[in-house]
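Board notes, transcribed. Complex of a protein with zinc ion.
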Amino acid sequence: MEAIREQNGCWEDVLILAIESSCDETAAAVVKNGREVLSNVIASQIALHTQFGGVVPEIASRKHMEQINQVIEKALWDAGTDLSDITAVAVTYGPGLVGALLVGVAEAKAIAYGAKKPLVGVHHIEGHVAANFITEYPAEHMDDVRCQTEQEALRPPFVCLIVSGGHSHLVIVRDYGEFEIIGRTRDDAAGEAFDKVARAVGLGYPGGPKVDKAARQGNPHAIEFPRAKVAGAPYDFSFSGLKSAVLNYINHAKMTGEEIHVSDLAASFQNAVVEVLVGHTVQAAKEYGYDKVAIAGGVASNTALREAMKKACQENGLCFHYPPPVFCTDNAAMIGAAAYYEYQKGTRHGWDLNAVPNLKLGER
Ligand code: KG4
Ligand code: ZN
């Protein structure tokens, strides 16, 4: 699988132009052989949506329309490539906001058709997992040097915790693009819980990074919040009870005129989430007999989660892999990494590729 495309008897590099537009980031990247990021351009719409307290789907689609061509041009330019060098065009086709996905899918189809290149549709969550396969990236992304120095290239099988704004899954990655889901959330996704708590406590949107920052000044043991267990499903998650406990705490404080220490509340809430995420993941790795653990999705950039998972893995003799933060939140480099392995397996999509807003993990 690690081999590269053979043409006329010689080995050639596989260069993927990847496009991601499933939510509020318009992104394009050029990725070489699934592991080396030659360029990674992200036009974030966060500032635009902040005034509404969350992503407004129609505004997101319109902004993608406005930005996508420039983002792709920059990705090709930064990589020192043009379309003739590209082996295949990859795009996220689900899950996500339908109007947002359609912009990327239509764009990728037009480029692939015009340049006579194969088209590879990628599952967004498969992309998040594949962020862990990236080993080389431009210097501006070396924001977490530990990732470079401590990690060896990750290869399946391994256990992966996928925690984003819309998903919380615990999976066994059997092979590239082959997943066995062993746990999932019964209600809110982990990122959704961060966003809702941030809003309730007045930290605003996007909640995850704001809670993360506030929590650094707080005491994680200041408030005892519940750690929800799902009866009969040891690897499932449930965050709505925790979210309600935080909301009740805030309401009670308001009614009794008590001051809310935002940083203590953020740290205590975050601690409750992190403890469950780490506990489930390490237990799964041990029970299923895997010695490698990875994390993926926007919440995987959370500092407390990274630290706690690192410590727990060390204590349990597990090898822990985690992408630099810029590859945890939405980006196209991860789509290019996933697309490489799909391309090698022979995955090709036709000109009828459409956006699938509720695409399930493992579905094609
Ligand atoms: O993966 P992602 O960028 O988009 C989805 O596919 O959903 O994840 C976004 C989610 C948001 O809920 C955001 O609040 C959360 O990831 N997030 C974080 C952090 N950075 C982003 N949550 C906790 N701590 C962070 N540092
Ligand atoms: Zn995502």
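The pocket of zinc ion (ligand 2) is lined by residues 124, 128, 164, 297-298, 330 (CB under 6 Å). The chain is about 40% helix and 20% strand.
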